[in-house]
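Appendix B, example 12.
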Amino acid sequence: MSAFYDHFSRHAHGEGIKARSTHYCPGCGHGVAHRDLAAAIDELGIQDRTVLISPVGCSVFAYYYFDVGNSQAAHGRAPAVALGHKLAHPEAVVISYQGDGDLASIGLAETISIAQMGLPITVIFINNAIYGMTGGQLAPTSLMGQKTSTSPDGRVAAMGQPLKMAELIASLDGPVYVERVALFSARERVKARKAIKKAITNQVEGRGYSFIEIIAECPTHLKMSPQEAEAWVKTKMEPVFPLGVKKDLTVEPWFKRGAPNFEPEAVLGLSGAERLDEDKPRTIANWPDHLPARDIAIKLAGSGGDGAQTAALLLTRTAISVGFDATAIPSYGPESRGGTSYADVHIAEQEVLNPAASEPHVLVAFNAPSLAKFAPTVPAGGLILYDSTVVTDPGRLPAGRRILPVPFTRIAADLGRPMVKNVVALGALQSALNLLPEDSLVGTLRHVLHDKPALLPLNESAYAAGQRAVHAGDGSSQIADRKLEPAAVAPAHG
């Protein structure tokens, strides 16, 4: 079959008899399922269009065998990766090939969410009632009473009932075709091959989401011969997981119903984002002369609700708008308010090559824990800017850094809205660093608040107040000028 490689490099480096057979254990259902999937791809003539997603589990080895587009996914994330491929290339035939531990356990949320969307992708689900790759642990589909490495006395009621994925997926509105098949006899293998082909045909014709569950053998972890494993699947698994079609809807192809629009402009419009005009001339010709490095790393950190993430996005958006390259990486705490939250921002003259800020040139700290945690990571010559309203005793800060306490919270409270302390911080940062053109951040504020004009005066006042606090030396006599020392701004990429 052309959908298979001529030689399998998994064994013997593609040489000898092992180069023509899969590496799976004798009697394993994966080998048969691979054969039937390859046959369907060949019969439909879609080899050059097919993208196979293989996540963690025994299914991860599919890329050794299938001569198609292959993409590996983290454990449980295959449906989300499949969706990304389909949205990026609607003409591709995207197949997510997954095991029960992957699909029905760690990936259950992704499985249900993507199925409910109903986009035309195909999911092949191998249910062998156990974790096959990682040691034979209890799986969501393990049977009642079944002994595994993590249920040595058998599955009991306290562990929950086996999860019937075909029935669950069929109950959703998105899927158009759901069927459960088996491999324990020649008759059932014929049905399985037909079901796999139909599920892929549905996608080729754009009819929607299809899901094929295959109850399969795992002789190794069942501690049975291949023949005994087949008998076990028939007598033990089939009564729990009844075979047959669970859902089969006849629908018009999506391109006849009005094709979804995957053009960038349409997708951006759904999210409220904007396309960056690459032909737009830069509004600044050169990097500021007083900054010797061409890539400045900034870390903004505080509690959830301090506005560090919003400030980081405003800073990044402004930098991009004036012609720099910029990135922002968020890190959220477990609580929306009160948990640790920080963002790493890079602003560069050219391309940002490393968006992380493990050693930031500038730290903006909104609370004492953030100051204590991240101040030691600022290299000598760097700038530490913190909220002196909240941090009344900064403790012993590292020597050789320029320290700038500014009462973000008090200034914002004086303006009548403590929540704008993050905008106060941005004003102070701009005055201290002078990285961006004057009033460019104000321009960003005006843009993002265009539909909330009542908030604009407050935010503009907060930004200006932060600038004045630095100009007036409010709370600090430890910063002499706006220059970062060369030691702090050595090129971030070596």
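Residues 474-482, 489-494 have pLDDT under 50 and may be disordered. The radius of gyration is 29 Å.
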